[in-house]
Amino acid sequence: MVTRILIFTAASSTVAMFVIATVYPFYVEPISFEPLDFYRAGSREVSLEELVATVEARNMTLYLPSKLPRGLELTAIYLKDAPFIAILVYSAGGDRDYKTAELTIEIAPSSYPPSSLDQLKSWIGEDEEALEVNGWLARVTRNAYIHDRAFTWKYGTDRVALVEAWVDGFNYLIRSPTLTVDELIQLIRGMKPSENCINFSTFFNIYA
Predict the structure, then answer these.
(1) Is residue 184 part of a domain?
(2) Looking at the 3D structure of the chain, how many domains does it have?
(3) Which of 138, 163, 145 lies closest to 32 in space, CA to CA?
(4) Positive or negative: CA dihedral 16, 175, 172, 105
(5) Measured distance CA(86)–CA(1) in Å, rounded
(6) For the chain, percent of residues with pLDDT exceeding 70
(7) Rg, the chain, Cα only
């Protein structure tokens, strides 16, 4: 039994919002959400430039959305250095809270990436889907459950669309209560290396 901790709001490797108990390579339990307070977990708010520089210092490449739907804009980035976890917050209304924003992307190094689509299919639960996007493996949960009062009060639901993708050594957890799974997949399809971005302020184009 290997326990993978996929962190959305983690204080350390033992404190996580996402805890997936996994028996490799046979089964992955469905994702559940246990919100903790990332703000008190030793994280700090950083600029996009600082995040990119931090990733490059690790000799890794950060992939970012090149297109954003529904007027979404990057409003905040929270970074924890040890272990490395970054949370990118996107909102059309200026929401800077990762718990309630319309789109949140958590990025952390991937410890146990699936080696093939067939292997990923053998891991997923009944309510999940496995697919490839740009050659990257991804796991889709259309109605993932989340425990958070502020979230439920704002959206009137305790469900989110969630896509987990493995991209060049990083694990991306992308969730949204307002976007569809198809929109999240389109967002992943449009992700590009941050090094290709010359002007950060114009990197995030909007598509209809």
Answers:
(1) yes
(2) 1
(3) 145
(4) negative
(5) 27
(6) 74
(7) 16
